[in-house]
Write a structure and sequence with these properties.
Helix content is about 35%, strand content about 10%. The chain is of the alpha/beta class. The protein folds into 2 domains: about 150 residues, NADH:ubiquinone oxidoreductase-like, 20kDa subunit (Rossmann fold, 3-Layer(aba) Sandwich), CATH 3.40.50.700; about 100 residues, no CATH class. A hairpin with a 2-residue loop joins strand 6 and strand 7.
Length: about 280
């Protein structure tokens, strides 16, 4: 993270790759803070908000979406060259997104099964996070990102301090909010203890287990949670694997659990049981 202000009034761009645009819309949904954001930042490229375009350079660039097609490979490298401070936003950009489940399957079979003319579809066999291809200066996780964390990052950029983002598990949010643990009280599988906080523990608040939308927290003991779930009930390995095979499945250590246990969809209603570890490709530019 940068410790100095990016610029007096930073030039900001917001771009997307393979994504649903939900994280970009979080910026527009800031409501009370939006006018202040416009006052302190010069937004020069943001397709969701304006028809104005800029090829850079950017002081700050927010990147949503995973690298999922050949054109993305060149574009992200070029954007990195024109950007001083690059921020990835959302599960797609930071972890490959839900579309990264194809990394355990047969890419060509997907295209043949879905599209009438698969030869027209330009896509990569793997969906990967932006950080696998270029250096990332900061990341905001989630599906979508948390408005509070976004405001905190923007504030830190203008004041030259390190963003104050909690480094803790979702379980801590539950404890502070008085939410009764769904694993203890209802026996519902939950990824809260291995997932980075940021969502406000919204799923446990409504009696559901955490889906891991914000990805694994640092030093998450996913293997330990897996052993507990195996001992706590008669659940098939694939069922436990599917708990990790969500929005952030391609982030370690969730990735290892999906590979070991199976559970990633491979198309036409089937699931993997002995998935091979997807081989990494490329490098940082």
């Amino acid at each position: 993270m940068a410790h100095a202000p990016v610029a007096a009034r930073p030039r900001v761009g917001v771009v997307k790759f393979a994504s649903c645009d939900g994280c970009q819309l979080t910026l527009l949904d800031l409501e009370d803070e939006l006018l202040s954001v416009v006052e302190h930042f010069d937004i020069v490229d943001f397709p969701e908000a304006t028809s104005a375009r800029s090829a850079g350079p950017y002081d700050v660039l927010f990147v949503e979406g995973s690298v999922s097609e050949p054109a993305h490979l060149e574009r992200i490298v070029e954007l990195r060259r024109r950007t001083r401070f690059l921020v990835t936003i959302g599960a797609c950009a930071t972890a490959g997104g839900i579309q990264a489940l194809r990394n355990w399957g047969d890419h060509d079979a997907f295209r043949l099964g879905v599209y009438a003319h698969p030869e027209w579809i330009a896509s990569l066999a793997r969906s990967t996070p932006v950080s696998e291809h270029v250096t990332v200066d900061a990341e905001l996780r989630g599906c979508p990102i948390d408005p509070g964390q976004l405001v905190e990052l923007l504030t830190a950029l203008t004041t030259g301090r390190r963003p104050q983002l909690r480094d803790e598990a979702v379980c801590m949010e539950c404890k502070r909010s008085g939410v009764v643990c769904v694993m203890v009280s209802k026996g519902i599988p939950c990824l809260g203890q291995v997932t980075q906080t940021g969502c406000g523990a919204i799923c446990p608040r409504f009696g559901r287990g955490c889906y891991g939308c914000f990805g694994p927290r640092e030093q998450a003991n996913a293997a330990g949670l897996t052993r507990h779930l195996q001992m706590a009930g008669d659940r098939p390995r694939e069922e436990i694997g599917r708990l990790f095979a969500g929005f952030t499945a391609y982030s370690e250590p969730f990735r290892s659990m999906v590979t070991e246990l199976g559970g990633a969809r491979t198309g036409r209603g089937t699931t993997t049981t002995t998935a091979a570890e997807p081989a990494p490709r490329g490098g940082k530019a």
